[in-house]
Write a structure and sequence with these properties.
Length: 172
């Protein structure tokens, strides 16, 4: 069965989405920065991407929700993440889209206290957008910025409004 696509990335929005939605940190400093950021309470910690997820977990930080697709920069298969204690949910999400299945998996994971890994068949690149929209205030959403580093977003009304505008332009 084909997934129901709710949002599709138009070509005219691609360059805008290359701009970080939060603070950009070079690869070498993201772990130090997340430790510093966690001095302030965070409702949830969500990662989008295999490399950022692995780096944060390797540093000893517990991620509430990890969204991965088993690839790095869309082509390189990464070694599978084997994480003990995580409930694994599989979803389909074609490249350059956000499906209802992905959105529902995020919603369900946010409703539970279980640690959840969402394994995407397709591409997880845009999952940070619904993660920001659905997460409680003070949550942290992190995603990789290919070739540069990682982006850390502290969820608040201002970032939600910005993301809402992006999603409106992507609505199918």
């Amino acid at each position: 069965m084909r997934p129901v696509i709710s949002y599709r990335l138009p070509h005219n929005l691609r360059s805008e989405l290359k701009e970080p939605l939060g603070r950009l940190y070079p690869k070498k400093t993201i772990v130090d920065e997340i430790h510093r950021e966690l001095l302030r309470p965070a409702e949830r910690i969500i990662t989008v991407g295999d490399v950022i997820t692995r780096n944060i977990l390797d540093s000893g930080i517990t991620i509430n929700i990890a969204v991965i697709d088993g690839k790095t920069e869309r082509t390189t298969k990464t070694p599978p993440l084997t994480i003990q204690g995580y409930h694994v949910v599989s979803v389909k999400n074609p490249p350059a889209t956000i499906t209802e299945e992905l959105i529902n998996a995020l919603k369900n994971a946010l409703l539970k206290s279980d640690l959840t890994m969402i394994m995407v068949d397709g591409e997880e690149d845009l999952a940070a957008l619904p993660a920001v929209m659905l997460s409680p205030a003070t949550s942290i959403v992190m995603y990789g910025q290919p070739g540069v580093g990682s982006v850390l977003i502290r969820v608040d009304d201002a970032i939600r409004k910005r993301v809402e505008g992006l999603l409106e332009r992507m609505r199918v």
